[in-house]
Amino acid sequence: MRLIPAIDLKGGKCVRLFKGDFDRTTEYSNDPVAVGRRFSGLDVQDLHIVDLDGARSGEQHNRTIVRAIAAETGLHIQLGGGIRDRSTVADWLGNGVARVVIGSMAITEVPTVREWLHEFGADRIVLALDVNIAKDGTPMLTTHGWTREAGVSLWECIDSYSDAGVEHVLCTDVSRDGAMAGPNIELYVETLRRYPDLQLQASGGVRNIDDLQQLRSRGIPAAISGRALLDGAITTTEVASFRRSA
Fold first, then answer.
1. Residue 8 annotated to the active site
2. Model pTM score
3. Where are the alpha helices (DSSP H) in the chain?
4. Which domain holds residue 82?
5. Is 231 in the active site?
6. Which CATH number does the domain housing residue 169 bear?
7. What is the mean pLDDT of residues 120-142?
8. How many separate domains does the chain show?
9. What is the pLDDT of residues 188-203, one digit of tens each?
């Protein structure tokens, strides 16, 4: 299983949100490049970056920082936040970003995103699908920074891309994100049962190395961790041991 560290950028600083709430942020560093270098020392291959300013405004204010992280770490950067048109996708993919992450548009503008999968390649597009679990257990999608219910289930959305060659899906249970509440393992297991060929990225709730081991034992291809790594709840030594035991 791939471990993917995560950095959220806001105002040029490295922060984390609590359950996606822009008013509940924890600032970790005013030097995101240094944080990226620290994560590169974990012997991982990928780094997940969210441009929170871009997510709010659609403007790519942290462009210089993202490029510097890519150049200095050598990690495969997957970037989300404010990527809403073809020109922005093309620009990032041509400037040091390995994969772009498409959020709300993956739900609201399926034909456009299907075109991007065809044009740029499914290996370079990640669909970020954020869910709330309904009372009947159905994972229902949210959009626009988790502020709107989409009225579409996770399964319906993935089905709409099934013949478009989608490879990468990043799935977040929004009740777990940034809350250190433990990942929704059954959600990811069910997703892979339905779509066994997906390169699924589990996101939200990872607290410690035991959570990562549980995800790996259930066959989850990749897991994103931000706060647990930044807080030191998962240590460098634990990551090294985790990777050796793969």
1. yes
2. 0.94
3. 32-40, 52-57, 63-73, 86-93, 105-108, 110-120, 154-159, 185-194, 209-217, 227-231, 236-244
4. 2-244
5. no
6. 3.20.20.70
7. 96
8. 1
9. 999 999 999 999 999 9
